[in-house]
Write a structure and sequence with these properties.
188 residues, globular, binds fe (ii) ion
Amino acid sequence: MPVRLDVDQLRVHAHPFTGAPGMVGGLLRHLQSLRQIRDDRGWISELLDEAENERMHLMTFVQIAQPTRLERYVIMFTQAVFYNFYFFLYLLAPRTAHRVVGYFEEEAVASYTQYLEEIDAGRHENVAAPRVAIDYWGLPDSATLRDVILAVRADKAGRRDRNHCFADTLKQGGWPKGLSHTVSAEGS
Ligand SMILES: [Fe+2]
């Protein structure tokens, strides 16, 4: 069985994990809001949107690179481990949990910038954008992989800023404040 480690395959492998933090954070914030009978100031919907957005990244990249059956088993196992790790991290240290995601997203923005450079240099084929991506991001029918990567990188840049903002807010103590942060749509 060939070992495939191309960039598209790695995207498929990464997203079963990157889709977990938003759902975990949203779940725990939801329970906290119910428990303390206090408004969440928009945090829950932001976090659940993150999870949905990452899931759509996976639905997009799986159209470009299909994992093998063995890879699917590995993904299932490691997702279970990561989900539980992140759940307890968020439960015990939510500020750190958001900061970790912020740093991951910083790296992701840089890696998508490299991806674009690979496409622009002709080292990675600029295939047609999958239909699921065209529909999700409202791209034109003529959109290509490059357009998809630009959209994904903008998502990542927003999530980077948002999670650092969440961490900063928690560092100040008290209940989450409103989402008054600014989110840049460009990559770094
Ligand atoms: Fe993603």
